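This part of the workshop introduces the protein records we will be handling. An example says more than a description, so a record of this kind follows:
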Amino acid sequence: MKNSKFDIDLAKGQEMEETFEEFMKGSLVEVKSERHIWENTGNHFVEFECRGKPSGIAVTEADYWVLMLVREIEGKDIPVMTYIVPIDVMKNLARELYHAGKQVNGGDDNASVGVLVKIKDIALSCLNNV
């Protein structure tokens, strides 16, 4: 006797896997990771400029901004959460902070200019733009 609930859940899961594969097929993604500090600050640094030239989100041609939150576990960097955000949603979040004068220096040698976007806002922005 088949477990119909299991069969239905399995079929839906497989359908979503196919949907995700189709969703990502042909899409350009910009993958960024936050290591360690995000756990204390709850922020993601979004770069606009490096060494006086546009960079990061200002020049990306990606369709999606992929944020991987990484935690060190037993000496290894392990992704513990990933957000896949349409690039226009991420640009709007970052642009709002940028125009509000919330720029900060960061990156290697503090040579980059960007904004600190709250990870919570990134997660909620996806819900607000459905």
